Structure formats: C-alpha cells, structure tokens
C-alpha cells in the first residue's frame, strides 16, 4: 500500500486540473493526509472480502444520483399520512444538491484518493467529479436530518442504517477521503434538520403552530 511518503505532490484526472495534494513536504498536510490514507488502507487490508466486494458497489449505487432518497421522498409525498415528511425530505435533498454539488465541490476542487494512489484496483468506475464533500454521505444524512424533526421513528432507524452503509461504502471503494465522508454527513444532517424545521418556523410565523400539549385535543 502507498504510504504518505510515496504520495505525489500533485494529482489530476480527466476533466479536472492538477491540484496540490501536499503543499508542505513535512508539514501538517502530510500528517493529516497520511492519517486519511492510513484509514483507507486499513479498510483495504482488514475489511475486504469477496462478499463485501460484491455488496458495497450495490449499496453505493443506491445513491449515485440520490435515487434511493428521491424514491423515498416520492413514496412519502404520495402517502397522505406522510406527505409533509416527503416534502421536507425533498427540500433537504434539493438543498444538498445546491450546496454540495453546486457550490462546495467545484469551489474546493479536491482530488480523490484513487487518483492520488492509482495502485488500488477500483471496484466501480472512477467518479469524474471532485471529492469534497461526499455527495453520497451528504444526501444520505440529509434524509436522516429531515426525518428527525418529523419524529418518524419507524423510518428513522432503517434510514440511519442505510445512510451509514452508503457512507462507509465510499471509503471501502476508495473513492473518498474520510474527511469527505465526515463533512458530507455533517453537511447533510444540518441541511436535513434545517429543512425539517422550516415548516414549523413557517407555522409559527403565520400563527398556525399548535400550543404545547395541544396536539390531539379538540
């Protein structure tokens, strides 16, 4: 496995210009990037199995374009009891696309670990966009954040488990740095929570919010 000492100072891939990877040969950047490589390489050396090699690409593919969460939002929107939850989830996913793909990825323009260390054989096609933050993790945890204010306990558990699996799959597949996934999860969770609280804020502003303890009373 490639160590921090073997990392090239510059990495690039088709369609994206070369970017500095380690700006100071013996500074903080080497230690941080070396730690991230350590996590990725530990996963490669200790977690790889034939079963997971077949399973992780499938789990990752569930969210290549947010498909699983878009489908969930659509189902909820067409279910009268959960229509508001579906609208909140759809809003969270929209905010995620705008912030993650529209702003942060092109602004930060970070290359992926598989481009810095091409010695690793990828199990999926190499992603062609920038690395930071992880769009898969952001969309998945936006779904988690959207469900929290809605108090959908039966949905929250499975959604949280799937979100964690999707986030881990990006590390297993060697297409994201750990900090990409952590930042994506944090961003998605924040956007989901914001989307979940917007309806309550709007209700409060328009005077339609029920008083505490009044739910269910006639």
TrEMBL record:
<keyword id="KW-1133">Transmembrane helix</keyword>
<dbReference type="Pfam" id="PF01569">
    <property type="entry name" value="PAP2"/>
</dbReference>
<dbReference type="GO" id="GO:0005886">
    <property type="term" value="C:plasma membrane"/>
</dbReference>
<protein>
    <recommendedName>
        <fullName>Phosphatidic acid phosphatase type 2/haloperoxidase domain-containing protein</fullName>
    </recommendedName>
</protein>
<dbReference type="InterPro" id="IPR036938">
    <property type="entry name" value="PAP2/HPO_sf"/>
</dbReference>
<feature type="transmembrane region" description="Helical">
    <location>
        <begin position="181"/>
        <end position="198"/>
    </location>
</feature>
<keyword id="KW-0812">Transmembrane</keyword>
<dbReference type="InterPro" id="IPR000326">
    <property type="entry name" value="PAP2/HPO"/>
</dbReference>
<feature type="transmembrane region" description="Helical">
    <location>
        <begin position="58"/>
        <end position="79"/>
    </location>
</feature>
<feature type="domain" description="Phosphatidic acid phosphatase type 2/haloperoxidase">
    <location>
        <begin position="85"/>
        <end position="196"/>
    </location>
</feature>
<keyword id="KW-0378">Hydrolase</keyword>
<feature type="transmembrane region" description="Helical">
    <location>
        <begin position="155"/>
        <end position="175"/>
    </location>
</feature>
<keyword id="KW-0472">Membrane</keyword>
<dbReference type="GO" id="GO:0016787">
    <property type="term" value="F:hydrolase activity"/>
</dbReference>
<keyword id="KW-1003">Cell membrane</keyword>
């Amino acid at each position: 496995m490639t160590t921090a000492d073997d990392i090239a100072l510059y990495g690039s891939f088709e369609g994206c210009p070369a970017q500095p990877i380690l700006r100071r040969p013996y500074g903080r950047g080497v230690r941080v990037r070396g730690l991230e490589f350590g996590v990725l390489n530990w996963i490669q050396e200790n977690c790889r199995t034939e079963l997971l090699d077949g399973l992780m690409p499938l789990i990752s593919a569930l969210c290549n374009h947010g498909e699983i969460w878009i489908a969930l939002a659509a189902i909820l929107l067409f279910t009268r009891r959960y229509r508001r939850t579906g609208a909140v989830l759809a809003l969270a996913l929209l905010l995620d696309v705008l912030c993650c793909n529209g702003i942060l990825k092109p602004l930060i323009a970070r290359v992926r670990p598989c481009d810095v260390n091409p010695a690793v054989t990828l199990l999926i096609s190499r992603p062609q966009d920038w690395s930071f933050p992880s769009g898969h993790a952001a969309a998945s945890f936006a779904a988690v954040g959207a469900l929290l204010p809605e108090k959908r306990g039966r949905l929250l558990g499975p959604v949280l488990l799937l979100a964690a699996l999707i986030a881990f799959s990006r590390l297993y597949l060697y297409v994201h740095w750990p900090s990409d996934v952590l930042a994506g999860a944090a961003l998605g969770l924040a956007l989901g929570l914001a989307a979940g609280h917007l309806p309550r804020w709007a209700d409060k502003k328009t005077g339609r919010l029920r008083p505490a303890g009044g739910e269910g009373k006639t």
